[in-house]
Amino acid sequence: MSGLVFWYLSEKKEMEEEKFIKRLEWLDKERRKEKEKINTLEETSARLGEELSAASKQIKDLSAEVTRLVAQQGRVAQFDEALSQFRKEITRI
């Protein structure tokens, strides 16, 4: 009987070891997947940071251009007014 008990216990121990090894392999596989996801997220974050910097620079440049154009529009309005006055004077002559 002790041989049968020994065999049963060794089989049970072997099954537990196999189960433990499979669990370890699964955990390692999951860890690798998570590491890949983290790397992908880090790359995406870096890329989005670069895009944000570029967009911020473009907004700054466009804001400066709008300011320049608004000032120029004022000068055009002044020129139009002066031209209109000039035309009135010419028609009087």
Can you give a write-up of this model?
With 93 residues, the protein is an all-alpha fold. Helices cover 98% and strands 0% of the residues. The chain is built from 1 helix and no strands. It has one helix at residues 2-92. The longest helix has 91 residues, at 2-92. It is rod-shaped, with a radius of gyration of 40 Å. The model has no long low-confidence stretch (mean pLDDT 90).
Q: Care to count the β-strands? A: 0
Provide a count of the helices.
1
Largest sheet, in brief, is: none
Task: Identify the overall geometry.
Answer: rod-shaped
Beta-strand percentage range: under 5%
Residue stretches low in confidence (pLDDT < 50, at least 5 long) are none
Q: Helix share of residues?
A: over 70%
Order of helices and strands: H
The pLDDT mean sits at 90
Tell me the structural class: mainly alpha
**Estimated radius of gyration:** 40 Å
End-to-end Cα distance, whole Å, is 135 Å
Keywords for this entry:
93 residues; mainly alpha; 1 helix; 98% helix
Give a short overview.
The protein is mainly α. The chain has one helix spanning 2-92.
SSE topology sketch:
Blueprint: H1 2-92
